[in-house]
Structure formats: structure tokens, C-alpha cells
Here is the input.
Amino acid sequence: STWGCHVMALLNKQARLRGWGSWAKQKTLGGFIGDEWAEMVISTDLILTVNRRAETLRQMMHAYASRSFNAGSGPDVAVVMHRLELDKHQFITECSFAIEMLIDFELSKMQFCHVVFCRNAFQSSDPRTFRTDDPELQQIFDLIDVMVHTHTLINKGSVIPPNEYRLDVSDLQLIAFSS
Here is the structure.
């Protein structure tokens, strides 16, 4: 039944969130109590919020990936793509992967650059289209923000791009927008 599929999908997302939380706790040597955080996230119904806002998140990421190639629209994407060894098509593909992994709560599959792409999509979004006072979008951004800080703690500032090369923390400044 459709209801049974929805329940199963929710349970799978909860399990993936718990798995990421446990992984993060282990990787940070307890510096981030990811297991407790995951239970708190589950209790707030954030998974249902992400499900409800999935199309909005896709639109936001599409706008970010498309706009990133226009002059004067944020970080120098050409430099980022060169550092990550991505061409334009690969960059757009990685952005799409990033938002789909977030929507599916495949957090353990997200590399740091994917999390940063999600953050950049939020930070560079048009506030007339994606309202900054929207509590659901703020809740989703908070999830991404926790992931950025956790990955930074785990990687001690290093960025791990999709092709597995390591970059220095200074390269992150080329990817991330300033708040």
C-alpha cells in the first residue's frame, strides 16, 4: 500500500540519520554527540519537513547551480571547478547529487563539498523566492549547518571533493559564501 511505502521510507531515513549521527560521534571522538542529535532531529519531524519541501530544495539547488556560471554571482566557480577537477556538467551533477542525498537523508554518502553546495544554495538563494523567514527552510538550513561544522571538525578543515583529492582549508573559501 502507499501508506506502507511512506512509513517504510520514513523509517529508512530515520535509520540513515541515526547511522550518520553514530558515525559523527565516533569520528569526532565524542566531541559531537551525534546519536543524541539524531534523536532530537527525529523528534522534531525534520524528516517530514524535508519531504514536504523536497521540490523547493531541488529548485533552490537548480537555481544555485545554474546561476553559479553567471558573472558576479558568488564564488569564482571556475576556480572551484578547477580545484575539484569538475567540468560544468560535473559541477551541476554533483549539486544535484548533493540535494538528493540530503532529501533522502543519505548523509553518510555526502562528502564535504556536497554539504557546502547545499549551504551555498541556501545562502545564495533569492529571498523573494525562498523566504529567509520561512521556519521550515530555516530548520533545514540548521541541519546543513550542523553537517558543515561536523565535517569541518572531522576533516580538521580539509575539503574532500567528489574525486577524493584533498584540498587545503584555504580552498574552502573559494567554495563557501561568507555569511
